[in-house]
Amino acid sequence: MPVIVDAFDVNALVTAAGVIRKGGLVAFPTETVYGLGADASNPIAVAGIFEAKARPKIDPVIVHVSDPAMAAKYGIFPPAALPLMNHFWPGALTLVVPKTTAVPSIVTAGLDTVAIRVPSHPAALAFLRACGCAIAAPSANAFGYASPTTAQHVAESLGNKVDLILDGGPCSIGVESTIVSLSGPIPAVLRAGGVPVEELSSIVGEIRVLIGTEERPVVPGQLRRHYATRTPLEIVDENAEVLNPSEQIGLLCLVEPANRLPYKAIEILSPSGNLREAAANFFGALRRLDALSLDRIIARPLPQQGLGLALMDRLQRAAARE
Fold first, then answer.
1. 318: Cβ contacts below 8 Å, ≥ 6 apart
2. Nearest-CA neighbor of 311 among 187, 126, 175?
3. CA–CA separation, 301 vs 2, rounded Å?
4. Distance between CA 252 and CA 36 in Å, rounded?
5. What is the C-alpha separation between 102 and 136, in angstroms, rounded?
6. What's the CA gap between 38 and 120, in Å, rounded?
7. Whole-model pTM?
8. Helix (H) or strand (E) holding 101
9. Per-residue pLDDT tens digits for 63-104
10. Please, are residues 175 and 283 in contact by the beta-carbon 8 Å criterion?
11. Does the CA dihedral 108-113-114-115 come out positive or negative?
């Protein structure tokens, strides 16, 4: 198993920064999910991320920085970025802007744009400052599987493929960052995530929502099948459900179901129906159901508002057939 250390320990951060400088891989906590990080300016180190995750090189990764000044070394930010940066950084918002020559092609999958964010998790910021460089990082798990929201999830998924894991506790938001492209005249949401669309529009006014599927992604999270469990998953409305008595079935739902009897296991995301609580519990619940050797998992549809939009996007990709 990989070495797991306290993300808030100063000596651990010094060790982690040393791993990064030597071209190694460090898993670190953010408020969204755990990231698998490498020096963003080192293409060989970044290639190690793709190898460890078995991630296709057509799928770009996000560059994490400690502040807007560092961000300016890697991206060219138009005036439209300023209100978003001022309001949501540090936080769960990634901005897609033209890249500078400091960004290796492997980070952006050959694209002319780069995805950048400043995380708000205090341990993530301390790690970035200790490294003194930008960190390229997708989620710290095997590619396509449910994202990690604890250090143990990382260890179970990647094992010794990661040199060091910084344990900062459970992620508070629990789903990846919202990605907004600033390449057009109107900001466009390309991935729903930790910042709801409603909050974005309250700051910038008009905003397009272009959450779709791409054969060649322009940002992470656009592949048709992603965030998946190994157990087959279906999204089924309660009124349309047909159960086979011979099957072992797990249920993922927002609130207490009307009938518990048919299910081998049930994961309730938020007894009160709170979507923020549901997001924080989402990937952990999926992983627990997936570990039970069930025949299938049934997920109830979630309200597509606030963080529910991000949760439904992940459920739909997890349910997509190969």
1. 146, 225, 226, 227, 228, 229, 233, 286
2. 175
3. 37
4. 27
5. 12
6. 19
7. 0.96
8. none
9. 999 999 999 999 999 999 999 999 999 999 999 999 999 999
10. yes
11. negative
